[in-house]
Amino acid sequence: MHKTLYYDNFFRQLTKDVHQRLDDDATVVLFRVIKESDLKNRDNQQLIFDRLMETIDQKNEEEAINCCNKIDLMQYENTFAFYDAATKRMLALRFSSGKLYNRLVAKLKVTRDSYFEKKRSTN
């Protein structure tokens, strides 16, 4: 069975099935191997998201928009909480950039919609 865990859809189905059947009679331990290339990609994503927050702190509109462009180009994803924190940070710093704020709010809406979509599909 462990050899089939390389297929993403099967892994998701297996974890969903285990979660639905969770009871006191069974314990399941799943290990997922992450390839080195996936780790590099994750690190690159994290660098871009960290840089976005730094540019917000520095109130550097041009560089922050460049970060958003890279995020869109590379199709990186982050959580609702991240974009919520980014917009709140802009407001707290009184960083008035309508262009950047609108980009972050658009991403916030997309993550909110996908969050509720995933929640509906698991129920």
Structure in a nutshell:
The protein is an all-alpha fold.
Question: If you had to describe this structure to a student in words, what would you say it looks like?
Answer:
By secondary structure, the chain is mainly α. It has a domain at 37-121. Helix content is 71%, strand content 0%. It contains 5 helices and no strands. Helix 2 runs antiparallel to helix 3 (61-74), helix 3 (61-74) packs parallel to helix 5 (98-122) and helix 4 runs antiparallel to helix 5 (98-122). The longest helix has 25 residues, at 98-122. The chain is elongated and about 55 Å long.
Task: Please tag this protein with its features.
123 residues, mainly alpha
Task: Lay out the secondary structure.
Layout: H1 8-20, H2 36-57, H3 61-74, H4 80-92, H5 98-122
Enumerate how many helices there are, as a single number. 5
How would you describe the oligomerization state of the chains in this entry? Answer: single chain
Radius of gyration: 19 Å
Major pleated sheet: none
Overall SS class: mainly alpha
Termini separation comes to 26 Å
Shape: elongated
Query: Tally of extended strands?
Result: 0
Strand content: under 5%
Helix fraction by DSSP (H/I, runs of at least 4): over 70%
Order of helices and strands: HHHHH
Unreliable spans: 1-7
Overall average residue pLDDT: 79
